Amino acid sequence: MAFLNNILSSWKGKRLNSDAFPDHDRYMKKQRHATNGPAQVGLPSRVDSETKETRCKVNKMIMLYVQNQSHVEAPGADGGPPKAQLTQNIFATVLIDNVMDSLHGHARHEQQLWSLGAFLFSDPQMDRQITQSIASPQQRRLKNWIRATVIEETDLLGGGPMLGAAAADDGWARCFHYMSTGKVVQAAELAQKLGDDALMAMLVIHYQQDDTPLDIHKAAEEQIDYWRAENAFDAFHLDRKRMWYVLQGKLGYVDELKMVITHDLAWPQALLLYTLYGDRYGHLPSALARYEALVRDQHILSPHTLRAKKETQPVPQHCQWYRLLLWWAIAIAPDAFSQQETAIQPAIETSFPLRFRWLLMLHVKNMLKHPNKDNWTADWCDQLFNDGMEYMAMHAALYMTNSEPWIKDKLSKRTWDKEHYLIRQLQIPAAWIIEAKAVYAHNQGQFDDEISRAPLF
To answer: pTM for the full model?
Structure first.
């Protein structure tokens, strides 16, 4: 282990386990629920549960933090509504930890969504007009985040189908299982113990590739050709061959084996193999595009491709972190995906919780493709208002493109005890409040008050 730990460099990720080397305390904290004690075996809940009480708790927490990180600009000389701007990237703050803590126990899927969101959008220097690119170090750290998450997902499914009693005594079956669940250290160590130093080295080199990516497919193909020339490859254990075919990028049907490489794998394992080894140069969006083309394409002609589709598990719809990952990959590398795949972006966006969509609007609005995305801020404000957080709703409304109609409407729905807060802190014009009082009095049948509170202009 010491030898491999010296080779494998640390990475900035969210969690702590024996196969991932985080260097950031905040991400270690986020994973503490999964690392304390043994993994729970059994199928996880397919749907997150949330009561009004828990919804209000999380939403209030978000708004309190946004209020503290907002700068409100008063209306200009030409009139118009006040505007609010963030002074800090919310995804880079401790708020994300607090949200995830509040979601623990009843909303695991949303918890993972926030974790990945923090990873993707937490760069403090992130340009609000984000470019469609991904740096190699970021891509490498993201792959390690996926590795760690797949370990977690596989544990929740009972460890995966290859951890039966027979596999426990089969060294190469265990080695392939380690590879398919992202446990690189264990896979490399066991491959070396079983006598395949080349496989150990290939796993380590692939894990390490960063600014100068190796054509892992070509390197694996050359090694296989060498063994075939020595008449050695045919005698290899089935799972040892599978590992080399994975490194070669052959993840579907392999005629020599008469099988699909992913045929007995759970969906987290199949996804991981495509993510890590599906593209020749390790380009993550291209690898995801290959996986999506296989599991989602309805126009498959080849019998072998059809068999690969049937024996490759798709990601379940309730997996929110994968939907965010796919949406992000399409956004930064649309050319890697088909037109049919890029068209699903708006549908993916609406599947995210409203509070998460609203923060995306504040940080990466230009990446969002839904035609009605500008309505999401109003939806968020309506939810806050209806849940009894009226003053917070007023503050959130200042992030609208044009907040005047919404603010005037809601001002007239009730009486407001903290007019000084609305005027001084939120910079809402006093004339709007006076007018709203008159409208409220009229709607309540208080006609004397309506006259006395009517604006004199």
So the answer is: 0.85
